[in-house]
Amino acid sequence: MPNAARKSRLIAEVDFEKDGVQHGFIRLFHSTHASAYGFIPIPIVVIRNGAGPTALFTAGNHGDEYEGQIAITKLAQSLKPEDIRGRVILLPALNFPAAVAGRRTSPIDDVNLNRVFPGDPNGSVTEQIAYFVEHELVPLADLSADLHSGGSSLMYMPCALMKRSADTAMFERTLAALKAFGASHAFVAAIAQGQGGDQNLTGAADRHGVMAIGTELAGGGTVTPAALRMIERGLNNLLAHIGILPPERHIAAPPTRIVEVGGPDYFVYASEAGVFEPLVELGDMVTAGQPAGLIHTPETPWRAPAEVFFAHDGLVLCKRIPGRTVRGDCLFHLGSDWVA
Ligand SMILES: [Zn+2]
């Protein structure tokens, strides 16, 4: 862990040990031509009522993924200290410059926050955010939920998710939390293919022994109401599951269909540039060898389209949204039925 001994340069306006509701900003000092002594204000709300577990809920890690940003904003206004035991830490716009720009990456340094953990206290603004989260926020938590959606380029079936862990006890605890969340679908990510691995916030949680739940909720750079309702219920249920809310606050949901996302053969990538025609929809069951899509070249209309194929059986969880594609773009990924 580089620079682990260094203190983050970011300063929290809130006191994490104080009871009641506090709101303010994490100050990330950023000296620019327009603002010599200015700071980037990362909003934070801390709700605490005595001793008890701590939940850390984050969204806007990717700025173009909106359901989690809304759900945490609503929770910041509805959750009262007298309702809870312990502490809830809410950051709905974690990569603040990316969130206000509605972009996956920061417009300041073009860095993807969820690919630079554990961060760097002396690095670019996004690396400094990662370092603060890794060293100052995650260690406070018993449970972390970092809320993602498909963003501008992908659309997901609304899913909760967790990572496979070699630590059996942690895996079982996290799986129980995943089921309590109450999403209609969830997936266990077996490996880090395309998803950041130990460079994301879940990796930070792993390093600190903190239980981590994630989501992939619709996407496409928009807000899907059904996905928003699913995450609002899910956050409530996570709080009830770990004892921050009383158990009777749990909201019943149908059982979650859990699938596993395995290795590279679960993903379909564009073989060349062109216009992507999907041949299946989200939620379809497919088999290995089945055509997944065609890539057309309207600029050379007499040329036959390239075909891309699924390499594994499974449920279509995710698809690419923009029609224009280039070689290497992810077009689909699958999940396969998985037995706990
Ligand atoms: Zn994301």
Which key terms come to mind for this protein?
15-stranded mixed beta sheet, 4-stranded antiparallel beta sheet, 340 residues, alpha+beta, binds zinc ion
Task: List the topology elements.
Elements: E1 11-12, E2 20-29, E3 39-49, E4 54-58, H1 67-78, E5 86-91, H2 96-101, H3 125-137, E6 143-148, E7 154-156, E8 159-163, H4 168-181, E9 185-189, H5 201-207, E10 211-216, H6 225-241, E11 257-261, E12 267-269, E13 274-278, E14 285-286, E15 291-296, E16 306-309, E17 314-320, E18 324-325, E19 330-337
Parallel strand pairs: 4-5, 4-6, 6-10, 8-9, 9-11
Antiparallel strand pairs: 1-2, 2-3, 3-5, 7-17, 8-10, 11-19, 12-19, 13-15, 13-18, 14-17, 15-16, 17-19
Helix pairs in contact: 1-6, 4-6
Zinc ion (ZN) binds next to loops.
**What is the number of strand segments?**
19
Largest sheet: 15 strands, mixed
Shape, per Cα inertia axes:
globular
Helix content: 10-25%
- Low-confidence blocks of residues: none
The average pLDDT is 95
Radius of gyration over alpha carbons?
Answer: 20 Å
Distance between the termini: 33 Å
